[in-house]
UniProtKB/TrEMBL annotation:
Broad class of enzyme this protein falls into: transferase
Organism: Thermotalea metallivorans
GO MF annotation list: 16S rRNA (guanine(966)-N(2))-methyltransferase activity; nucleic acid binding
Name used for this protein in its record: Ribosomal RNA small subunit methyltransferase D
EC number(s) reported in the record: 2.1.1.171
Amino acid sequence: MRVIAGQLKGRKLKAPNGLNTRPTTDRVKESIFSMIHPYLMDSMVLDLFSGTGSLGIEALSRGAKKAYFVDHNKQSISIIKENISNLGLLDQSVILFSDAIKALKELALKNEKFDIIFLDPPYAKGLIIPCIQEIQNNLLLRPEGMIVVEHDPEDQLPEMIEKLHKRKDRRYGNTNISIYSEEA
């Protein structure tokens, strides 16, 4: 696993042993970032269910200003800290060891707002819609912001969730990417 573009292009990322995480493949990551590239520069990014931190790190490499990494697995948090430290991204990163819903509530209390939110929960656990509802209820997404959801193609997500419209829906093998935003 590696950073695929930007100032850290080619740098290796550590991944945890075992199958508890499902790192985003380079092909899917490249597709995601080609879709959101115009919105990355100086953006505030939230990487929920971070796993290795790959998506948030890729965003920082490509020009995001700051990334928040959230995961509730101790091994994942340790890997994220190691990857961020090895890449010299400590000043641009905030790591939260927390359940996603609890983290969203904490971020709302701190009045944080995000331009891009990566949502890559474990497949088939029913976490996507509750997380998006929590994001909307707590006004964590800036008006021009977007939520990038990585999910199982079997999970057919609705065209609208709260005030958000599904803008893109692409399938890459056993991974689907759906992008939600408010803007038309």
